[in-house]
Amino acid sequence: MDFVRGIVIWGGVALAGAAVGGIIAGMKNRDYSSWIAWCFVLPPLVFVLLLLPRHQGQRPRQPRLDESERGSW
Predict the structure, then answer these.
(1) pLDDT at 68
(2) Domain boundaries along the sequence of the chain
(3) pTM of this prediction?
(4) 59 contact partners, CB below 8 Å, separation of at least 6
């Protein structure tokens, strides 16, 4: 039962890390979708995000699929 408890604890930590990472990335004007994903996989990255300065200007975003395929035809 200890192994299952460890998996459940890690899942909770991963979900909490993703939620906190998304909130902090939004406050720091970062690309929150990528930070949510990385903080889910590696929850300690929340501390790295806390140390990063606030991004000035527009929030960076990933190009959409249509935008990236536009020039390949």
Answers:
(1) 64
(2) 2-55
(3) 0.76
(4) 29, 30, 31, 32
pLDDT tens digits, one per residue of 9-63: 999 999 999 999 999 999 998 888 899 999 999 999 999 999 999 888 777 777 7
What amino acid is encoded at 66 in this protein?
Answer: D
Measure Cα distances from 26 to 6, 11, 19, 46, 47 in Å.
30, 23, 11, 13, 15
CA atoms within 13 A on the CB side of 54: 7
38's CB contacts (< 8 A; 6+ apart) are 21, 45
- Nearest in space to 20 (alpha carbons), one of 3, 38, 2, 7: 38
Amino acid at 1: M
Q: Both tokens of residue 3? A: 């192994």
